[in-house]
Design brief:
Elements lengths: L1 H26 L2 E2 L5 E2 L7 H12 L13 H13 L10 H7 L3 H5 L5 H14 L4 H16 L7 H5 L6 H5 L8 H11 L10 E3 L14 E5 L2 E4 L1
Helix pairs in contact: 6-7, 6-10, 7-10
Length: 228
Amino acid sequence: MKKYYKHKLVLILTMALIFSYTSANIIFPFFNSVGAATYAWGSRGTVVSEIQRKLKAWGYYKSSVDGVYGYNTYKAVRYFQSKNGLKVDGAAGDRTLAAMGINPKSSSQGTGSQDVVLLSRLINGEARGEPYEGQVAVGAVILNRVKDPRFPNTIAGVIYQPGAFTAIVDGQINAVIAQSSINAARDALNGWDPSGGAVYYFNPATATSKWIWSRPLIKVIGDHRFCN
């Protein structure tokens, strides 16, 4: 009888360990035998946002960039893996991350929150080389749109609104982020608005839309005209 209960206890403990391990792997990033982080269903954070952002830019992911590894992210990762000769398991491990050009350490450190990372990428792609004030102003335009009922009400929604920004179309949002872009994103998020409340900006040397010229001008900073 004692032997029976001993075996039953071992079975219960084993099942508990399996459940704990499985749950941890589903809900949180876990580490494989070589110590590389793996991001799977339920993971959250800036690395997940980076995964979504890249997959969206490449046409694998159609949903919002929200930093949550849900079903749509899982499907997109599987699709990417199937097209790139990787093990198709829907989890972003070391090989999948490397194929995407993502370093989890650099993606999750040094830039701050998801909003800072995404906003700095947009500023970098749209206003790299502009005066610092102009970089902050581009970030402020994004935030002004978030507050305006005519536009999506999240930073990711505004940035990825179809056709809204050239950096999304030409891939410049994927460029290496300059420190000035990170600083500008933080300044904009902290409330600095050099644009004067603008919700549009454009470069007159490259603008192809006649409509944008009809917008009331607020100010000019560098090569950009900021408008309402």
